[in-house]
## 1
Amino acid sequence: MRIKKNVPKIDRKQDYDMKLCKLLNEYYSVLIVEADHVGSTQLAAVRRGIRGESELLMGKNTLIHRCIKVHAEATGNDKIKAIIPLLEGNVGLIFTKADFKKVREEVAKYKVGAPARVGLVAPIDVVLPPGNTGA
């Protein structure tokens, strides 16, 4: 779904709501992925990689919360509300009919290392070997 700049915000939100409801009806499995420090080209590559069997949906968490609550009330499916507490931070939803392991491996293929930057917390433990500090 591309952002349409000349369309009013309320219409864009309604389009997003309809798309999320369609995906919730069409797919029976949802994979939640963390997308911190992921570039647009990397997301595009993931979308290309999972095309056909899955769909990646990114969006505002509050809008996703609202859409899920409204969908659950409309369909009577309260089980879908279980993913609401998991939607914190920069996350995306991968809707799939395929095996989770297969989709997870496909997404992991696009994971790239990033250099350290000031103020970021390392995603893995960093151990420096003892040695001369140069003094």
## 2
Amino acid sequence: MAFPRVRLVVTADDFGYCPRRDEGIVEAFLAGTVTSVSLLVNGTAAESAAELARRHSIPTGLHANLSEGRPVGPARHNASSLLSPEGFFLGKMGFREALAAGDVALPQVQEELEAQLSRFRELLGKSPTHVDGHQHVHVLPAGVCQVFAEALQAYGVRFTRLPAERDVGSCAWLEAPARAFACTVERDARAAIGPFSRHGLRWTDAFVGLSTCGRHMSAHRVLGSLARALEDIPAGHALTAELMAHPGYPSVPPAGGCETAPWSVTRQWSAQKALLSSAMLGYWPAYKWKISVI
């Protein structure tokens, strides 16, 4: 019997956050349960993470960051609409609020993004395999996603993430604020399709990860989210899907973060290891898919 054929990309975000997190990510990659990573070039462990990526030939993209820690571009030494008076990015919601109020200067977004792309090249000696956004800043409206699309095209980056998870609003296990945020990200992602397409960017056919972050990541929920994403796919049809994940061992405070601005972090290593161990079998009969992890 023919089943839909799914090529699953598993991306570990926040590479470079701290050595312990990076240790878990590398273990997952070597075990075959992570296929690529997204590097925070302003992370406190960015340099050692880049060395790990080179040593193990890990496909590495840029996790562009406009919301946590300090910038790597000229804004680091000057007043900027992207920063607080203390010189830090404004935070996940703070950046969005400033953008909605018209307080973010898009040339400064472009300047910082280009600085992060350049820093990535310094660390890895090559361009990123893909660019996505920390806390999904790359799909934000008010011109931000357009700036991203233009910069990626200029730097020769062809692949990005489109975090549009199907029916994420129906995920009752998400607390109301998390569900509202996920729905906003999904809406922004669909609105970014136009700018991304016009600049030649590509992304996977399906995406999962908004509904399975942090303590909500389990094999059951990821499989359910994939089932929604792949609903009505014809038998024998081939497509790609991305699973966004955040594996890693717990860090020891105060280690970790982005340039002296440590974050609270979620741990998904055990759940992801169990999930992708099942995936490596290549076939989940209850869902009638044929899956290969690439």
## 3
Amino acid sequence: MDPGFDDVPEVVDWMSSMVDRGGRRNQESTRLFLARRTALEMLRDRGYSVPESELARTLPEFRAWWEKDPDFDRLAFATARASDHSDKVQIRFCSQEPVRIATIQEIYDQIEGENLSRLILISKGKIMPRAKESMKEKFTFKVDSFLVRELLVNITKHVLKPKHEVLSAEEKANLLKKYKVEDSQLPRMDATDAVARYYGLDKGTVLKVTYDGEITGNHVTYRCIF
């Protein structure tokens, strides 16, 4: 993991403890507000279209909207990639704890026929092993799953984070040609790394990582997802 991200779990735990200081009703609305906002920022950073009005919504505005009808289905958000409208993605929130096969079936029934390219599933509780297998069997596209608590903070806004840029296929080819290497020879980043999950990166994708700080110094490196 990149320098500056080793303490991300501690930051998430701290944020979670701060959120949980309010009343129970406020706790849930605050956690859902933060998780949904991070998810929308994540879509924007992946190149999907997200209205500024969604990103600019404040906690009081969210609470006023949410408390009228606290139904998790209302938290869903669908959009398409700005450069390719056929590349559709949807965010779905799941209130069940834990998430079992029946819930996965329900979600599948709700989105079947929408021609999605990706689904982002955000749950309050863990997804049971058999439910994970069901996801693999039912969905023909990639499903990124997160716990609500994992999205209380946007890790890419961490004060010590280096800058991450995803290379296009052409940029990757030029890089490998320039340095006369195979992608397997580049420094690696695990697909389960927090940054890789945030950007939804597939194996073989190359990231340009720019460091600019007193601790790390100023330099550029590249990481290949494996």
## 4
Amino acid sequence: MALSSSFSLPSISKIDHAKKTLRPRSNDRSKQMFDFPLTSSKTELFGHQLVTVGAHLHKSWSFLGGSRVTMRPRHESIVPLRKISQVYTSWLASSQIASTAFTFGTASVLPFYALMVLAPKAELTKISMESSIPYIVLGVLYAYLLYLSWTPETLQLIFASKYWLPELPGIGRMFLNEMTLASAWIHLLVVDLFAARQVFRDGLDNKIETRHSVSLCLFFCPVGIVTHVITKALTKNAGSSSTRNMH
């Protein structure tokens, strides 16, 4: 009996085979079609999964051949198991890269903030603030993450409006990707450190207290800049008042 081609059966109206029920669609005895749903027929072949979704059975009758039923598959697909495994491995590797870059970037800027806050007048702090190495390293890391996170939809998500301007829903969809989120975090760390260094230098040049402003620049950079501007204005006013009193 070969199901791949055809097989002979007596004239019946219901067939049960391997807990699958066949029912005729038509009352015409000369030609009847059966539904044969195969809900879970899977075969693994050379690392691929063969999935049969369903089949049609066509019944015909003749005096010479008797009753004949032919099975025709409805749908058959091959799911490459190796490809699925590679996609999962790639996603896992991307997640690990994003997490490692996030941790490395955060840890690399903390020593510079610690020097500016704890030892603002130390020679090591002044030398560190003159160096461009942290910006080069973090800039290369940012470019690498940007390359990994870039997709054909990136520009469409950034310039989603008809005026080629960013829109909040598009930016929100873009940051659902961990790699994109990690690259944005590195971007913020570089900009915040650069702003904190400018605040620190300005404080040294004008003899202004900057430790509170530098600390705020780590996670609240705009607030830290505003705080430094206010501190600088108050310091100048206090200096002018003291000079007038002396005269």
